[in-house]
Design a protein that fits this description.
Length: 179
Amino acid sequence: MKPSEINFKKLWKIVISTPNRIHSSVHGPKHWARVERNGLYLCKANSADEEVVRLFALFHDSMRINDHRDPEHGLRGAEYAKSLLNKEYELSEERFELLYYACQYHNKSKTPTENKTIGTCWDADRLDLRRVCIKPSEQLLYSQEAKRIVREKKWAELTKGNNIKNKESLVKFWNNFFH
Ligand SMILES: [Fe+2]
Ligand SMILES: [Fe+2]
């Protein structure tokens, strides 16, 4: 895939500084960063659309207002992504539709999808359930590689060779936005 023309660092700064977002380790930017890491890992295995997956990681929980029941946060995240489209980043209509759908329905139980990029977005999010001590259910995952990680308990593979390798580099990644 050709180098991204989206300035992700700038986009992260914009989203992070948006009023109303929750300051939460459960659904806040550290979670988004791990979803991005998981997504990039899965993209290597199934050639899903990396940019859409990275944008999903950033937007999907960006409009959560609490860490509990907030059933419309996916839709609000999708609308927020729409509000920045063609202003802060460019994406073709077809790819944006994937992003919008992935954000809108990511928290709507087992929504069917045949699209590997959308499935990868949801798997990347679900693979981070371990942060709240929940083992992701293999039946609720879409990609074979995500299912394998869970079945064989190969969690360490998610942190190898990615832009966020371990806890220390996750902190470094996070600190970049404030220094
Ligand atoms: Fe969510
Ligand atoms: Fe999430």
